[in-house]
Each structure stands twice: as structure tokens, then as C-alpha cells.
Amino acid sequence: MGGAVIGERNPDVGINENDMSIALLIEYGDFKYFIGGDIEHPTEGEIAERDLVMDVDVYHSNHHGSDTSSTPELMEDMKPTVIIISNGNHGLYKHPRKSILNYYKNMSPEPTVFQTNKYLKGGKGGNVPDEFIADPETVHDTGTILVSVDESNGTYEVSYRDQNHEFQIKRKGN
Fold first, then answer.
1. Of 148, 66, 157, 78, residue with least CA distance to 111
2. Residue 30 burial (10 A CB sphere; 0-12, 13-18, 19+)
3. For residue 142, what pLDDT is reported?
4. For the segment 123-150, what is each residue's pLDDT rounded down to a tens digit?
5. Is 35 strand, coil or helix?
6. Whole-prediction pTM value?
């Protein structure tokens, strides 16, 4: 049981704190960015069942890249071009999980995945290549990734350190 989802007639809410996160679909012109906080499989399933989040440009990976999120149903609806994983460097929760990174890599089309901090503890946790990590030395608690949208040009940019990656905004109906 988690949080209430738009369109749900009899929400069964209450015991899973992660699933009670506030999820946002941010739209700026044709640009779409989805961030679901720490929502997990149950709430993602409710969102996917209602087709509430379709064809996003950027997906801010739910629950820090945990294997309790990013369900195939939701990912198929979203088809993100870019995925950003916000994770710490401490290793307590082993985020992002190698299994989720492998899942993202096998999506079609394959999204470009960015990560805020390098995970250093081994085990179930993993990393994208260093050039896609905002803080690969993990000297701070958080790396910073900035997404800037140029709607008039039909592009958005993902920036961190001295890196800038430009992407085309998906147009409605594409």
C-alpha cells in the first residue's frame, strides 16, 4: 500500500512511506520531466495502468535507482531519452543497483543514463561510466546535474562539471 494516484477511486494508502512520495510530471512546452521520489512498484503500477506519464524526455530515476522501482510497465510508457540517478556515495542502500543499470542498458531505445555520485562499496551497487557521473571522485555528498531547456530551439542540455550533453526534445505525437 502506498500513496494515492490521480484517477484512483478508492486509494489504499498508508503503510509504505516510499510509495507516499510526491511524484511530479513537469512540462515546459513539449519538454517532459518525471520525478517520482521514492515510489516503488505498487505506485508505479497504478501510474502505468492509467497511462499518466507517457513519452518523457527525462526520467529522474525513482528511489535512487533501486531495484524496487523502474517497473517495465512504467518504463515502457515513459520511454525516456535521458535517465538521471540521484544517489549518495555512502553505500548504505547500494544505489544504484547493477540490475537496474543493466535493465536501463537493455531498453530500446537505450536511454543515456547519468548519475550524481560514484558508488564505491561493491556488491549489488553499480555505476555508469565515469564520464556520465557528476562527482566521479565522490569527494562530496552530492554531485550536481543541471537540466536546461531551450524550447525555442527544441533542445535540452544535461550539464555537470565541464560536461554538456545536448538532446532533442520529443515532440508531441512523436
1. 78
2. middle
3. 61
4. 899 999 999 999 998 766 568 999 999 9
5. strand
6. 0.91
Q: Is the pLDDT of residue 9 over 60?
A: yes
Judge contact between 47 and 5, C-beta under 8 A: yes
Note the CATH number of domain 18-142: 3.60.15.10
**CA 61 to chain centroid:** 2
H-type helices in 27-155, by residue range? 41-49, 72-78, 98-105
Judge contact between 13 and 2, C-beta under 8 A. yes
What is d(CA 84, CA 64) in angstroms, rounded to the nearest whole number?
Answer: 9
Which residue in 162, 138, 157 sits closest to 146, CA to CA?
157
pLDDT of residue 121: 82
For the chain, give every domain's residue range: 18-142
Kindly give the residue spans of alpha helices, DSSP state H, lying in the chain. Answer: 41-49, 72-78, 98-105
Cell of 63: 528511489
